[in-house]
Design goal:
This protein has 60 residues and is mostly helical. The chain has a domain of 26 residues. The chain contains 1 helix and no strands. The longest helix has 51 residues.
Length: 60
């Protein structure tokens, strides 16, 4: 009976460690994707602002 409890605790601990590492990896991946996406967005906005100043658009 004692070894069943110890075995169950070990299996639960390993499961929590695996789930925690997967969730941690996914969170890091989402953060890096957000950082890269923000940098691309800012770069595109800056390029559009610089490019758009030479030819102003007017309403008819």
């Amino acid at each position: 009976m004692f070894w069943k409890i110890v075995g169950a605790l070990v299996v639960a601990w390993v499961a929590i460690m695996v789930i925690g590492s997967v969730v941690g990896f996914l969170l890091k991946a989402v953060v890096w994707i957000a950082i890269i996406g923000g940098a691309v967005f800012l770069g595109t906005a800056a390029y559009g602002a610089i490019k758009g100043k030479s030819s102003p658009k007017r309403l008819p």
